[in-house]
Amino acid sequence: MAETFLALGNVDKTTNITKAGKETVFGGTTYSAVTARKLGLTTTLLTRGSDELKDWLATLETMGIRTILETDKATLTVINDYTLGGEWVQKLLTKTGKIILDLEDDFDIIHVNPLYKEISMDVIRRARKQSKLLSVEVAGLVRDARNGIVTANFLKSREEWLEGVDIVHFSDRERRFMSRETEPRRICEDVQSCGPRIVLYTLGANGSIVLGNGFYKIPAFKTTEVDPTGAGDVFTTTFAIRYFETENEKASGLFATAAASFKVEDFGSKNIQSRERVEERTKKLMEEVNWETTKVSKTNSQVN
Hints:
By secondary structure, the protein is of the alpha/beta class.
């Protein structure tokens, strides 16, 4: 019987502007749900939004994804602009209220993917009780907006937010809002001290870091980037699924890297691939790319 998976957080309407072009897609929790379904899990997606989402949710239903819409007067709508130089700029057009999570179902894995203030601490605590493994994305917990431009604030009460979380993910963009440390290993250790068993720290083209029982550097898979939006969601979802299956941190990091590399090759969720394709690219990453996945002892203070 297939494992059960809940993608919890908003589906947003996103206009992504990159050097490769411009496209409007329904993203957010879409990336996690499509990934889980492509990997063979029995998948549910729960989002908050307006009737504007109904056609897209119906499309996801045709893929075998059960969808639940908590009705709101608005749908989270943003513009992601990667062409302005420096860091990605996100513009917030509309937002939703808080997700309620009025579900009695239990799941093998719940992935909490807040985009902009729609997830409360209470919802994360309930997700903990309803899952065997709980993973959480940090981005939507630290985001704020000033004059319509999305910014971020340091996550207050980190221990309360992360208590009981199995896997937490943040990117290099969010790391300064999660830790006062500056060295990668110490950043991860600082966040791990707040409660999560495993910390995932992604660095874009520079790969990722996994801190759990071991400490691993995972190289990126070199490919042509069209749209990076959602790559972190795919990475964390895939890592959580593989780890649930194997309890192997290194193997899960490599598998997640391969899965996320497909995502960046096209806009939206359309290039998220099957388990078989991800397995093939994982082997290529291990055999053909000049990768040096290094396990560093927990007493070593430097990343090699």
